[in-house]
């Protein structure tokens, strides 16, 4: 604790370090590498005594933090650091506030790490949601594109004299035929329209019944009618 009425060159504290080496290697030097107010305190290079460089003023912060480095004279040189927390006050009741300095630093670091972790998790979660939405959109759009690209096939026109004939014989598949009866002629034309499966015959074959076959059929019909009488 440093009194508020402390003047320049007042002894505040002293850092003591010991080196296990002997001779010149055991010589130690002290340096302040970080301070809340760099112009307020100084340290003896070989003694390690911390003194004020000027008088304490009302504008100086009550809490002062010093980080001191101690180096030996070896080759290579080794060093160690220590932290000093000083309180500028004349009242001993204010001494417990010195503990809050370390707590403030640790809490600030913890807050910084928490912010980084929160940002990282939020970014990862947002990226994951965007990927899921993109996949669902692509899956919904693909069937729609296939439907839009479908070709509408008009229904087949059936003539008035159309008759559907199904037959299964020596052919390997069943065929549908169009039977067209022409007026003024005794010849009936049977035309292949389509086949359900591929066969050995083309779908544009036309079968015609000869005139003699038609007459034979008529003769059979006449005999049947005569016997019936």
TrEMBL record:
Bilayer-spanning residue ranges = 110-135
Q: Where is the Cadherin domain?
A: 2-98
Gene3D superfamilies according to UniProt: Cadherins
Which top-level group of life is the source organism from? Answer: Eukaryota
Q: What is its main location?
A: membrane
InterPro entries assigned to the protein according to its UniProt record, in alphabetical order? Cadherin-like_dom, Cadherin-like_sf, Cadherin_C, Protocadherin/Cadherin-CA
Repeat keyword on record: yes
The Gene Ontology biological process annotation of the record reads: homophilic cell adhesion via plasma membrane adhesion molecules
Q: How does it sit in the membrane?
A: Single-pass type I membrane protein
Which PANTHER family does the entry link to? CADHERIN-87A, PCDH2G3 PROTEIN-RELATED
Is Repeat one of the keywords?
A: yes
The listed locations are: Cell membrane
Q: Which GO terms describe its cellular component?
A: plasma membrane
Write out the GO MF terms.
calcium ion binding
Q: Which protein are we looking at?
A: Protocadherin beta-16-like protein
Keyword terms of this UniProt record: Calcium, Cell adhesion, Cell membrane, Glycoprotein, Membrane, Repeat, Signal, Transmembrane, Transmembrane helix
Q: Which Pfam families match?
A: Cadherin, Cadherin_C_2
């Amino acid at each position: 604790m440093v009194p508020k009425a402390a003047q320049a060159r007042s002894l505040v504290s002293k850092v003591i370090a010991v080196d296990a080496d002997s001779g010149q290697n055991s010589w130690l030097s002290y340096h302040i590498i970080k301070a809340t107010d760099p112009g307020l305190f100084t340290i003896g290079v070989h003694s390690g005594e911390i003194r004020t460089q000027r008088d304490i003023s009302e504008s100086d912060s009550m809490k002062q933090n010093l980080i001191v480095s101690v180096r030996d004279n070896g080759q290579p040189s080794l060093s160690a650091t220590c932290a000093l927390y000083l309180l500028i006050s004349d009242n001993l009741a204010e001494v417990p506030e010195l503990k809050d300095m370390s707590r403030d630093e640790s809490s600030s670091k913890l807050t910084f790490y928490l912010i980084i972790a929160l940002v990282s998790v939020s970014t990862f979660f947002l990226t994951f949601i965007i990927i899921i939405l993109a996949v669902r959109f692509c899956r919904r759009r693909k069937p729609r594109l296939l439907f839009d690209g479908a070709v509408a096939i008009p229904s087949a026109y059936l003539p008035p004299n159309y008759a559907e004939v199904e037959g299964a014989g020596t052919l390997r598949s069943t065929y549908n035929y169009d039977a067209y009866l022409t007026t003024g002629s005794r010849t009936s034309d049977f035309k292949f329209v389509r086949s359900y499966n591929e066969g050995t015959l083309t779908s544009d074959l036309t079968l015609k019944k000869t005139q003699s076959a038609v007459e034979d059929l008529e003769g059979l019909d006449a005999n049947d009618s005569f016997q019936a009488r």
